[in-house]
Design brief:
Elements lengths: L7 H7 L9 H15 L9 H15 L1 H16 L4 H5 L9 H13 L9 H8 L5 H7 L2 H11 L8 H22 L2 H4 L11 H9 L7 H26 L3 H24 L7 H17 L3 H24 L7 H28 L6 H21 L9 H10 L11 H41 L7 H8 L8 H28 L2 H6 L2 H6 L2 H31 L1 H6 L8 H15 L6 H33 L9 H12 L19
Length: 661
């Protein structure tokens, strides 16, 4: 008991305590105490862990006995444990499929799995025993961890034959897993045409089985790099042909296997040493997985993130058309938004007419939904622009500028320019919508009054239309956040449907459909399939948005829940109808000004919520963390100071900022 309370790291540092390789438990305690020196006192101060590790590295360099004890502790654990499971299974998310992984984690929530002491994962769990240790492990930079492992100076020739055999066995198991995955129909059909007769994933397996021939090592390294390139190429093809959850699982597992195989080949080649950078990546992954191995949230995040990336890609490609670069594109966006505003005027008038029918709440909600859906589809089909639909798409395009899967190091200057372009494009679309909605809706209200002798709204009803947009006499700003959520969800659905259409090759299947071949000409089938292939996502998104907005009001009437929506252009149209119904002489100018500010606030929260949610999903699906780029805010501020008007309208000349330098 007394020995367990000793701090073996401190004793080695201050009392010249020397470890014995024959005492495995003592060596393990030494590792526990060493990383206890690195672990920060509070997880919120995880950044302090890097300073702690740098101090430990300095102590290892300054004290030969401490360094020797460190090597003995590590070598002893490797010599007395089985490392195969660590290399082949740990951190291999989804290797058993989503359902099996979910049920396993759920059961282990109640009854944790048994950890054998001769398993190297037992060592990992003993040393990094706190469930949030992965936070500070990941907070330490890759370079600092490389310094630590380089200081350790671990080499394979220090180990016995059993350890080398374990590495070779793990390599063979991973190799067969990669070869098997490449033969799965979903993966095989995506293999590049040049590999149809010579599957590079099978070639690597053949080379692994010849690894006792030392001349094979370099060839195998090159083939593994080619395998990684082909896996990446398949992932890129998914952006065009669509992705499925099962295919995403297999590619993710294949990527993990290949990265570990590179470590093992490096370890078993002639120089008998590890590639330190890859070792650090693997070490971080294992610590994270062991800390989070029973986390259901982590499972959902990892499993759906890969498909979310493909959905975000489809949204991002569409988002490019909403980003203006030249003055010509800017004014074209303005005109397009004015066209969208004109259609919204009809939607607002029809919605108020439907409200006069006094239908049952359910059918009234359906009527509103159909009105909204038809209007949104009309905006899409006429290539007009609705300002609030942009954020869900432009957010993915902005996140794409930070995508390290496409670029080794993102150009933050170029990202600042992209943010400016998105901001001014959003300004143009809001301005175009509002420049038309208020005056034209007013004109429609006047025409209706002249032709029928009745106003669309008057008295208490007209006043209610104004009060519903007032920022503090109603919950308009809160309801605007609900609309932002619905805009995000409809954009996500649009991306999902578009991905599904392309992955399932619906267009080709329609062309070859036996019934359609009997009833339609080849030309009509081709036009129909092309239309659905290119418009199915937007149609689904527009219909979904229409029903989300139209049905929200019935919850108040049916369930008594204070839930509603506010959409900037629809609210602007309602203000026009309400003001006409009351007359300018009956509305105080100050009150009307506050209502107009409320409409602008509604637009702000529509944009903020929709853009933020879409941006977060796009970042997470790409594995991007904004905290890794703290200098971006400074770069963006410098750009704003130099060119503030760029956030409102484009310049006619382009300088180094526009070039991303």
């Amino acid at each position: 008991m007394k020995q367990k309370r000793m701090d073996l790291f401190r004793d080695s540092l201050e009392k010249n305590f020397e470890l014995s390789s024959r005492n495995r438990e003592q060596c393990l305690d030494f590792l526990v105490h060493l990383f206890k020196q690195v672990r920060p006192g509070k997880m919120k101060a995880a950044s302090k862990a890097e300073l702690n590790l740098q101090r430990v590295i300095a102590q290892l360099h300054a004290n030969p006995l401490l360094l020797r004890n460190m090597k003995i502790a590590v070598v002893t654990q490797l010599a007395h444990t089985n490392i195969i499971k660590t290399l082949t299974d740990s951190g291999m998310l989804l290797s058993r499929g989503f359902v099996q992984e979910f049920s396993s984690r759920l059961s282990h929530k109640f009854l944790p799995s048994l950890q054998e002491e001769d398993d190297f994962l037992y060592v990992i769990n003993r040393v990094f025993y706190k469930k949030n240790d992965y936070l500070w492990v990941e907070a330490i930079s890759r370079d600092t961890w490389k310094q630590f492992f380089d200081t350790l100076g671990f080499t394979i020739d220090q180990q016995d034959l059993k350890f080398k055999e374990q590495l070779a066995e793990a390599l063979i198991m991973l190799s067969y897993k990669v070869a098997h995955l490449s033969m799965e129909p979903e993966v095989h059909k995506y293999l590049p045409a040049v590999l149809e007769g010579d599957n590079i994933f099978i070639v690597q397996n053949q080379l692994v089985n010849q690894l006792q021939n030392t001349r094979v090592h370099n060839e195998l390294k090159n083939v593994l790099e080619q395998c990684a390139d082909v896996a990446e190429e398949i992932r890129e093809v998914q952006s065009i042909k669509g992705a499925s959850l099962s295919l995403s699982y297999m590619l993710l597992v294949m990527r993990y296997c290949l990265s570990r195989m590179k470590i093992l080949v490096d370890a078993l080649d002639n120089d008998q040493s590890f590639h330190t950078g890859r070792l650090v990546d693997f070490f971080r992954l294992v610590v994270r997985y062991e800390n989070r191995k029973n986390s259901l949230r982590e499972l959902f995040s990892q499993s759906f993130g890969y498909v979310a990336y493909q959905i975000a890609e489809h949204k991002g490609s569409k988002g490019d058309k909403y980003i203006t670069v030249t003055p010509r594109q800017y004014y074209k966006m303005l005109l397009s938004a004015m066209g969208g505003g004109l259609i919204v005027c009809f939607m607002v008038v029809v919605k108020n007419l439907l409200g006069r029918l006094h239908l049952l709440p359910l059918w009234q909600g359906v009527a509103y939904s159909l009105n909204y859906s038809i209007g949104f589809i009309a905006i899409e089909e006429t290539h007009s622009t609705l300002a609030t639909k942009q954020p869900a798409f432009t957010a993915s395009a902005v996140a794409g500028s930070l995508d390290t899967r496409k670029n080794e190091q993102p150009n933050l200057y170029n990202l600042a320019v992209t943010v400016a372009r998105v901001t001014r494009s959003q300004f143009a679309s809001f301005a175009g919508n509002l420049l038309v909605v208020f005056p034209v809706t007013w004109l429609f209200a006047w025409l209706y009054h002249i032709s029928t002798g009745h106003k669309l709204a008057q008295g208490a009803k007209a006043m209610s239309l104004l009060r519903e947009q007032h920022p503090w006499e109603s919950f308009s700003l809160l309801y605007a956040c609900n609309t932002g959520l619905f805009l995000f969800l409809s954009g996500l659905l649009a991306g999902f449907i578009q991905n599904k259409m392309q992955y399932s090759r619906v267009a080709d299947r329609l062309i070859m459909h036996p019934v359609l071949r009997l009833t339609m000409t080849a030309g009509r089938r081709k036009r129909l399939s092309h239309y659905l292939e290119t418009h199915a996502g937007s149609l689904a998104g527009n219909i979904a948005l229409g029903f989300l907005l139209g049905m929200s009001g019935i919850f108040v009437k049916i369930l008594g829940i204070p839930f509603d929506i506010r959409h900037i252009t629809i609210s602007a149209g309602n203000v026009a109808i309400g003001t006409y119904g009351l007359g300018f002489d009956q509305v105080r100018g100050q009150y009307l000004a506050v209502v107009v500010l409320g409409v602008l606030g509604i637009g702000f929260f529509n944009f903020l919520v929709s853009f933020s949610l879409a941006f977060i999903v796009a970042l997470k699906s790409r594995g991007i963390r904004l905290k890794d780029y703290p200098e971006f805010i400074r770069i963006l501020w410098r750009y704003f100071q130099k060119y503030p008007l760029d956030f409102i309208r484009p310049r006619r000349t382009i300088d180094k900022w526009e070039d991303g330098r």
